[in-house]
Design a protein that fits this description.
By secondary structure, the protein is an alpha+beta fold. The protein is built from five helices and four strands. Strands 1, 2, 3 and 4 form a four-stranded mixed sheet that branches. The protein is elongated, with a radius of gyration of 33 Å.
Length: about 170
Amino acid sequence: MAFNTKVDVADTELEENEAVVAEAEDVTLEDEALVEAESDTDEDDEESDESEDSLTYSNGVIEKIVAMATREVPHVLGMKGNLMHFVQEQFGAENLTKGVTVEVADDNRVVVNISVIIEYGAYAPAIFDDVKARVTERLAAMTGLEVAGVNLRIEDVITPEEHEHRTSQHE
């Protein structure tokens, strides 16, 4: 708003004009408050719109994707689970998430913990790099989740023949 005054204007005229300007400023402040209130309402509407739609994955789904991706890596002969996995296998249940745990951070990034059995004679750092690349690629392609970290624990080293013998005993 432009406010023009002349130097020879009487003080009373200035006071009247200042009052008009003050009233205009009050309106502007009120209008700004209304605009802010309306924008807050719009943001609330947007948030409520976003909250109506959602896509979530159970940890079991993420663990299964990780386990399957890990098994695709050469020289990974198997996954090493805990006692519960062992008991399930004894009763004939195949647990595809064996050897995998995931932790989802607040920012929806995933930390993956994997326990594997590798082939004797294979270079473990190369296996780690392959597992990390495969898991990261599969999770991103299937879920869009970002992998914050991969922790690979080598639980055992066995020959391919020993692995064959172990798996034939369980069948």
